[in-house]
Amino acid sequence: MGRSSSTKDAQALFHSLRSAYAATPVNLKIIDLYVGFAVFTALIQVVYMAIVGSFPFNSFLSGVLSCVGTAVLAVCLRIQVNKENKEFKDLPPERAFADFVLCNLVLHLVIMNFLG
Amino acid sequence: MARSLAGFLALFPFVLICGAASLFQPISDSHRSAALELFTPTHGSFKSLEETYEALRTFEVLGIEKKPDVTATACRSISETLGSLTSTPKDLFYALKANSIVKCKINEKTSEGIFTRLNAAVNGASSLLDFYYSIGGLVLIKGQTSKADVYLTDAEGVFRSVKAFSQSDGRWRYSSNNPESSAFAAGIALETLAGIVSLASSEMDQSLIITLKNDVSKLFDSIEKYDVGALYFDDKLVDGREHQGPLSTTSSVVRGLTALAAVTAGSVNLPGDKILGLAKFFLGIGVPGDAEDFFNQIDSLACLESNRVSIPLILSLPSTELSLTKKDSLKVRVNTVLGSNAPPLTVKLVGAFSSGSKDASLVESQELKFDAETGVHILSNLPKSIDVGSYTFVFEIVLHESEHVKVYVTGSQTKVPIFVTGLIKIESAEITVLDGDLGSIETQKKLDLAGHNAVSLSANHLQKLRISFQLTTPRGRAFRPHQALLKLRHESKIEHIFLVGNSGKQFEIVLNFLGLVEKFFYLSGRYDIELTVGDAVMENSLLRAIGHIELDLPEPPEKAPRPPPQPVDPYSRYGPKAEITHIFRAPEKHPPKELSLAFLGLTILPLLGFLVGLLRLGVNLKNFPSKAIPATFAILFHVGIGAVLLLYVLFWLKLDLFQTLKLLGFLGVFLVLVGHRILSHLAATSAKVKSA
């Protein structure tokens, strides 16, 4: 009885989340997709390392951190681009995008150096 | 080992006696053959007239008949020099000297010219060497031409000018400005003065001659001597350039003195013992290896031999080693320095002393028999009191005729070191193993030390080993050799050496193994026994392997000394070493290739998922600017980003950080400019839309 209600509640929660998410603008969805892609890639790298061992460790770190870093930058971009966010009302989204690109390039330069 | 030591020990007695006794050999055939080797003309002539003279004089003195024939070339060069107007007095001097031996004819006109030139040179001379060459030349030309009236005008004046170069210590200077003085210059000066005296037209003032006598005796004060009785002159080294060695200096002085003694007829005398000392100096050189030294030696010896005062006689022995076994007899020769026969005389052996001992003579004074055929004085049988060993024999020369005593000088006594060898008898040799305290004999074996032995014994640490033998000299006396050693060598090559002591004729050594256990490092096993008996006078020194002994020693305690490490075989130490195999770092374990490739594929998967999601979201390029300029910028922007990513790939593959940063600088600037244009354009467009 409790279990069925909790599952029903979970299902209801899930559905409401889905419908609410569907309302988000497309560009934010693109960014969310990008974040998911980056995290997923990081996970696969971790699984690989778990299988074969951490040698060479610097390569593993650079791989994982590039994914994590780019995800973080994408999240920042999302915060800045989101129109509902009052804090960044005056910031043009193009500017935010330019920052995103620039930071990504710097991140990837460092990652490439560390990759070995 | 004994044999090599015998050679070294043969020199030992000579070193001991060197202070008192020595041996000089007169000129012999080895000198003659050396002369022919040293004085070889190149292409039929010698390099200079000086060398020609030296070579010819040497051949003349040594009486070498088969000498190289340089007469023709020498004559040519002599007449060239004598006829040339540019020849200096020095050239004329050496040309005339060479001519005195070669004896080419000089024509009247040339000799007149030479005489005038040399006379002028005498008058104009300012240094000792100028006088020497000009006066010497005049003396030579007088002897070579038929002119009888070659005289020096004002001989006394010239004499005084030369005398002015003398110093109070007997040495002479070369010129008035040069303060350097030497005995070599003294020799030259004396020769010059002798020449002046012989060229004087009338009798010279005797007082001048007497002052010369004083100079000569002062010069003799500076004579130096070697312990063996040789006397010589040497100059102190002042200036290395001008320094002549003792040989050149002494020969110069001898030439000058003998020339002076010849012309002053007894006024200037050379003491007889000094002459003998000088002769010994020249003979002591042996055979010189340098042509100039050879000439100096031979010329000086010829001067000493032909001087009117005293002719030195040299006592020499063809062999100083006598063997009692071969019954050698003592042979003595007496010759002049150049090897010619001596006048009738007797050699007496006045004493024989054992080296290093100051006891009375072992022999009585006796005369040696003279064998006229070989010219040798012989003592046929060595006296019974002479046993093996090293001795000093003392000889005396007694001339038969009394007038010879004034002419020849022999020295009072001549000491000669003699070495007498012989066979030493080794008898009653035996090797015994004795039981500990009781001393009872367990094994006893006789040894034949003259032949081969291979005894085989065994002993333990409670027993003793004894080896004994007797040594007797040919004359029946006890003998103590330089070496009497017993060596025990273990299988592991460790050796132990013991001295064999003696009392009288009996030699004995007892090895008490109980006391030697520690010395032997507690090593049991087979020891090879070797006996060495050796001495320089022993003709049958021996080094014999006697056999071996099996020693049984107790176990070493913990603190026992370990045997010393044996010397390493040099070939194994310095030879090639074992090959080194390098151990490289084991390569890291790589995961299997298939797994890595599988995961590479898996990594691409999220990217595909992203692209699929984008499509599902319905992305479009509607916002892409349509006008030309913004469109170009947009494209350039994307191209720029793509270029940077490509640069990163290249950075990973092959570029280094600095190259990348350099390129990134350029690309970055480009990207910023382009990006700024397009993004500001897009911003302006969306702002317009918003406001509209």
Automatic annotation (TrEMBL), chain A:
Entry superkingdom: Eukaryota
Transmembrane segments: 33-51, 57-77, 97-115
Keywords: Apoptosis, Endoplasmic reticulum, Membrane, Transmembrane, Transmembrane helix
Listed InterPro entries: DAD/Ost2 (IPR003038)
Biological process, per Gene Ontology: protein N-linked glycosylation
Record Pfam families: DAD (PF02109)
One cellular-component annotation, GO: oligosaccharyltransferase complex
Compartment list: Endoplasmic reticulum membrane
This protein's record includes keyword Chloroplast: no
Keyword set includes Membrane: yes
Membrane topology: Multi-pass membrane protein
Protein task: Subunit of the oligosaccharyl transferase (OST) complex that catalyzes the initial transfer of a defined glycan (Glc(3)Man(9)GlcNAc(2) in eukaryotes) from the lipid carrier dolichol-pyrophosphate to an asparagine residue within an Asn-X-Ser/Thr consensus motif in nascent polypeptide chains, the first step in protein N-glycosylation. N-glycosylation occurs cotranslationally and the complex associates with the Sec61 complex at the channel-forming translocon complex that mediates protein translocation across the endoplasmic reticulum (ER). All subunits are required for a maximal enzyme activity.
Family: Belongs to the DAD/OST2 family.
Subunit organization: Component of the oligosaccharyltransferase (OST) complex.
Protein name, per record: Dolichyl-diphosphooligosaccharide--protein glycosyltransferase subunit DAD1
TrEMBL record, chain B:
InterPro entries found in the cross-reference section: Ribophorin_II_2nd, Ribophorin_II_3rd, Ribophorin_II_C, Ribophorin_II_N, Swp1
Protein's pathway: Protein modification; protein glycosylation
Domain Ribophorin II third: 428-551
Membrane topology term: Multi-pass membrane protein
Ribophorin II second domain residues: 313-420
Statement: the UniProt record of this protein carries the keyword Ion transport: no
Coiled-coil regions listed: none
Family that this chain belongs to: Belongs to the SWP1 family.
Quaternary structure, from the entry: Component of the oligosaccharyltransferase (OST) complex.
Listed name of the protein: Dolichyl-diphosphooligosaccharide--protein glycosyltransferase subunit 2
Organism: Herrania umbratica
